[in-house]
């Protein structure tokens, strides 16, 4: 049963003609009628011409306007690097003892970063970390000797872009409280990254069939893509 709040939202917005991202922001924000600061979310669909199971997009984007989310970052590293991780803002730092806690299901963090030397120990926990999307990955910058940069990125608005088996990519680009300029910059950063991924995956033709914008508790609108992706 729909709430009174939801019934007041516009209906059938997904069938409206597509509009540019910046022109839709005011509509999406107007629909944010809850008491909390709703996220502004994008949903991409890979073009039907692409074989979805052959497109493997997984990367990270440093949103220039930030994500608006507080991320709890954990670091597995050698004891001699613990202070570097703590000084950089890591919430949890540990070595062998921490790996053992993770093995036993203690995972009160949202991002896990690891040094290359400790990765061999974490790699044995694939069945624990993998399903939750927490396994560190060199491609995503979460297996690194440069702990300071990795932690700073994770804390300041880094988001992961990944397609599922059905060809969908979902990503949050900020909050309702963000000014439009921040959201536009974040949106363009996502498009730039997808454009690079298209090249890296040697995809012919358009990668993206459609993209919609919505808020956490709002309705969706179709975006007119401004770049050839």
Describe the structure.
This protein is α/β, with parallel strands linked by helices. The chain folds into 2 domains: about 15-60 and about 160-220, Ribosomal protein L1/L10, rRNA-binding domain (Ribulose 1,5 Bisphosphate Carboxylase/Oxygenase), CATH 3.30.190.20; about 75-155, 3-Layer(aba) Sandwich (Rossmann fold). Helix content is about 30%, strand content about 20%. The chain contains 8 helices and 9 strands. It has helices at about 5, 20-30, 80-85, 95-105, 115-120, 125-130, 145-155, 180-200, and strands at about 40-45, 60, 75, 90-95, 110-115, 160, 170-175, 210-215, 220. The strands form 3 sheets. The protein has a 4-stranded antiparallel β-sheet. A 3-stranded parallel β-sheet has the order 4-3-5. It has a two-stranded antiparallel sheet with strand order 2-6. Strand 8 (about 210-215) and strand 9 (about 220) form a beta hairpin. The longest helix has 21 residues, at about 180-200. The model has no long low-confidence stretch (mean pLDDT about 90).
